[in-house]
Each structure stands twice: as structure tokens, then as C-alpha cells.
């Protein structure tokens, strides 16, 4: 795909947004390529994804301001929907997605990172929702996901002031899970993805679904969501193998059942 590359290493896929001349800004073409790459992921043989940006300066510097500059109301809404649909696809993908934020994560860049399950960043990363300085609201889910991740007060402060924050502040407020040097970031993301991929894939998928679906439900409904997914694991070979290995004091053999997916 022109603006998005994909590499597979074992059970882990690496997606790279590749438009470095524009700091990986998201225009319609990039979003279209990204969606096609996500749709093509072989979910039978992939257990985790990493999303990063090409170059050393930027993860994603936002939605493309040139493209947005001439949009009408209806076109603006349609552009928002394109981004929202792709980001929601990332968020609801059955397997975990780790954002490896290697520089600017502004506007749509912060928003795409927030649609991933886990955010790791380099020490040069800058996060922010600068949209009100451009006369618009965040348009790819920022008003919703930022408040859910860092809390309503901090999200409102960031969005109303349009102040950017550095990696250490992003870590302090819980927007990222960890900060690495630029050299360490991708190896750290790969290590985490490999660890996730070494666990029972059906169980990992069930955990993602339980957490995501549960967050949109009342606690009474949410625990039922977990009960059902917990129960479904007992039909998997990984549950039988994993538990019998423990009880027989053996090392757990390969956890790899994609059965009953
Ligand atoms: N859209 C289009 N082009 C962009 C871009 C964007 N969001 N961000 C950077 N670029 C382009 C620049 O226009 C420039 O292109 P040219 O070389 O052709 O002039 C190139 O990338 C390099 O950028 P700079 O020269 O500006 O690099 P810098 O190091 O001086 O500054 C920056 C880096 C602070 C990230 C600055 O580029 C910037 O502020 N970019 C815009 C960030 C932004 O406002 N993002 C939010 C967009 S709105 C949005 O995302 C809405 C939404 O929620 C859907």
C-alpha cells in the first residue's frame, strides 16, 4: 500500500504510516490505505499488532490540514466519519494493538494512538489536540477517547487550551504506559507484542472484548459480559493444556489454539 506498510514477524504485525514528508499526516488516501492494510491482516496467524510512523520525527502530525482547509460542512462530517470508521476498526480489532509513538502525535495522531489498546512512546513524543487553534473540534474521536483515558478534567484542559504535552507529562497523566529512548521504542513494543503473542490467543482476545465491551456497559451488565467470555475459554484447548500443565508441574507447552475462535 502506498502510504502504509505492513511487515509480519512471527505472530506480530507491524503497521507503519509512511508519509514522512508531511510528518505522516492523515489525508483520505492514507486513511484508505490504512483501512486496506488492517482488513488484510491474517487474523488466524497474527496475535498482536504494532502501529508506528515512518521517520524519526513524527508518529502522526494529525489529519491533513491542506485537505481539510476547503471542506464544506457535509464534507467535514464525511471526513470525520472516514477517520472514525478506521479508528473504530482498530479499537475493535479482535487482537491487541500497541501504538509505538515515535514523535509528534497531534490531533488525529493523538486520536489514532488512543484507538490502540496500549500506547508506548519515545522521549521525543509530543501529544496534543490543537484543533481549536484551527477553528475545529477534534474530529477522529478525541473528545471521547481522551476523556475516557485521562479523565474529563484533564481532557477538557488539553482540548480547550490546545496545549501540547511532552512524553513525561503524557506518562504522568496515564496517556502512555511507558516512555523509551527513540532507539529503544520499537524493540520495547516488539517485546511487549511477543509477550502478548506467547499467551493463549483465545483468552487474550476474550480479555480485549471483555474490557472494551464492559466499558460501555453498566457494572451489572459488564460482569455478565466477562462471565460469558470466561466461560467460553473452557471450550478451548489452551485452557485444558494450560491448566493440566500447571497441575502436573510441567512447563506450559505452546499456547496456540485458534480453535473456537
Ligand atoms: N497536515 C498537513 N501537512 C502537515 C501536517 C498536517 N497536520 N503537519 C505537518 N505537515 C507538513 C507541513 O505542512 C510541512 O510540509 P511542507 O514541507 O510541504 O511545508 C511538513 O509536514 C513538515 O512540517 P513543518 O515544516 O511544519 O515541521 P516542524 O518541525 O516545523 O513542525 C509540527 C512540526 C509542530 C508538527 C507542525 O508541522 C504542525 O504544527 N503540524 C500541524 C499539527 C496539527 O495541528 N495537527 C492537528 C491537525 S487537525 C486534526 O487532526 C483534526 C482531527 O482531529 C481530525
Descriptive account of the structure:
The chain is of the alpha/beta class. It has 2 domains: 4-197, Alpha-Beta Complex (2-enoyl-CoA Hydratase, Chain A, domain 1), CATH 3.90.226.10; 199-255, Lyase 2-enoyl-coa Hydratase, Chain  A, domain 2 (Orthogonal Bundle). It contains 11 helices and 10 strands. The protein has a 6-stranded mixed beta sheet, with helices on both faces. Strand 1 (4-9) and strand 2 (12-17) form a beta hairpin. Helix 4 (108-114) packs across helix 5, helix 5 (142-150) crosses helix 6 (152-161) and helix 9 (201-215) packs antiparallel against helix 10. The radius of gyration is 19 Å and the shape is globular. The two termini are 29 Å apart. The structure holds acetoacetyl-coenzyme A. Acetoacetyl-coenzyme A (CAA) is lined by residues 22-23, 25, 61-66, 83, 104, 106-108, 111, 130-131, 134, 138-140, 142.
Amino acid at each position: 500500500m502506498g502510504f502504509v506498510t505492513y511487515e509480519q514477524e512471527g505472530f506480530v504485525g507491524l503497521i507503519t504510516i509512511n508519509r514522512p514528508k508531511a510528518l505522516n499526516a492523515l489525508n483520505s488516501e492514507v486513511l484508505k490505505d490504512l483501512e486496506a492494510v488492517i482488513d488484510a491482516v491474517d487474523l488466524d496467524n497474527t496475535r498482536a499488532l504494532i502501529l508506528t510512523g515512518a521517520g524519526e520525527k513524527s508518529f502522526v502530525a494529525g489529519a491533513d490540514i491542506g485537505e481539510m482547509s476547503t471542506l464544506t460542512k457535509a464534507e467535514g462530517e464525511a471526513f470525520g466519519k472516514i477517520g472514525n470508521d478506521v479508528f473504530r476498526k482498530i479499537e475493535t480489532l479482535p487482537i491487541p494493538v500497541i501504538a509505538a509513538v515515535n514523535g509528534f502525535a497531534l490531533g488525529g495522531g493523538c486520536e489514532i494512538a488512543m484507538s490502540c489498546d496500549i500506547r508506548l512512546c519515545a522521549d521525543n513524543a509530543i501529544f496534543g489536540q490543537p484543533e481549536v487553534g484551527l477553528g475545529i473540534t477534534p474530529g477522529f474521536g478525541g473528545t471521547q477517547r481522551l476523556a475516557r483515558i485521562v479523565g474529563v478534567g484533564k481532557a477538557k484542559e488539553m482540548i480547550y487550551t490546545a496545549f501540547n504535552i511532552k512524553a513525561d507529562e503524557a506518562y504522568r497523566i496515564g496517556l502512555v504506559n511507558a516512555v523509551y529512548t527513540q532507539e529503544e521504542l520499537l524493540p520495547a513494543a516488539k517485546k511487549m507484542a511477543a509477550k502478548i503473542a506467547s499467551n493463549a490467543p483465545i483468552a487474550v482476545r476474550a480479555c480485549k472484548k471483555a474490557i472494551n465491551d464492559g466499558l460501555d456497559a453498566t457494572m451489572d451488565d459488564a460482569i455478565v459480559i466477562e462471565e460469558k467470555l470466561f466461560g467460553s475459554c473452557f471450550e478451548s484447548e489452551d485452557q485444558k493444556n494450560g491448566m493440566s500443565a500447571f497441575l502436573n508441574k510441567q512447563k506450559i507447552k505452546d499456547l496456540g489454539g485458534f480453535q473456537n475462535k
